[in-house]
Amino acid sequence: MTLIDGKYVSAKVKEELKEKMIHLTRKPSLAVIRVGDDAASKIYVNLKAKMCEELGINFTEYHLDANIQQEDLMGLIHRLNADEDTTAILLQSPIPYHLNILEAFKAIDPEKDVDGFNPINVGKLALGQAVFAPCTPVGVMTLLKEYNIDIEGKHCVVIGRSNIVGRPMAQLLINSNATVTVCHSKTKNLAEITKTADVVVVAIGKPHYITADMIKEGAVVIDVGINRLPDSKKIVGDVDFENVKDKCSFITPVPGGVGPMTIITLMGNVIKTAE
Ligand code: NAD
Question: Annotated catalytic, 69?
């Protein structure tokens, strides 16, 4: 079994991005919109700010009050779309429930949409033409490539169908010539399907849900899940890592697998907006 080391790969990609930055004639500038006071969002935005600083990318946070109206949010997005100095825009989710996040994503200029959530970019991904696709699944593709895991013609089972991970993951795998099955909360006989998989990508948000009996000998297991155990506060994935690992050819740990790839992929997208 080979452990897929996301920390190592993200550090390597970071060095490549530093090199790219040297040759840019225009400075990339990321605008992050955060609405309200979700504690996790604040941490994520701070991490993005720190990484931008390390790479020499301009970073501006627009922190809006939780009580703003949709038109205030749309107004800011339109201003940032028009601002020539802002090359990249990201709306941090979640946003308060009274706001329509899909409308907001739709308003972000597709060329500045570094999260790939604008319907134009979602459509382009479905057509196999994406410039900006969601960062976590793109990060998974980078890991597979880095470890020379050939997915062409392989049966890849994606568990989870969210707009952020599952759906774009399935599209990216299809675009790389895999044979893809998507499973979700209404799927019947999940284990029967996963047992036929050469590659399993799990993104459901349920600690240790995928057990050894669900995995074929020699399969590749990619665990996107990030779950905090209520008792120990330990962070674990959706895969029962200790029992599954010996059956796999490759497996990602949590933490240190897919997690570090998301932010570095975002940085790569931000740099693309200035290229
Ligand atoms: P989500 O809640 O939006 O979607 C979960 C999906 O899992 C749904 O499509 C649902 O149908 C499916 N699901 C739920 N229970 C299931 C079951 N028993 N069997 C089969 N399918 C089931 O979650 P999300 O945003 O896609 O995130 C999923 C996990 O990935 C979470 O743990 C989240 O924290 C993590 N995540 C990690 C990163 C990262 O950078 N590593 C990024 C995004 C999300």
Answer: no
Q: What is the pTM of this model?
A: 0.97
Active site residue 171: no
CATH class of the region 26-111? alpha beta
Q: How many helices (H) and strands (E) does the chain have?
A: 10, 11
Q: Catalytic: 240?
A: no
Q: For residue range 16-65, what is the model confidence (pLDDT) as tens digits?
A: 999 999 999 999 999 999 999 999 999 999 999 999 999 999 999 999 99
9 lines ligand 1 (CB under 6 A): no
Of 3.40.50.720, 3.40.50.1820, 3.65.10.10, 3.40.190.10, the CATH number of 135-259 is 3.40.50.720
Catalytic residue among 115, 198, 223, 238: 115
Pairing outcome for strands 227-228 and 235-236: antiparallel
Q: Which of 173, 164, 180 is nearest to 128 (CA)?
A: 173
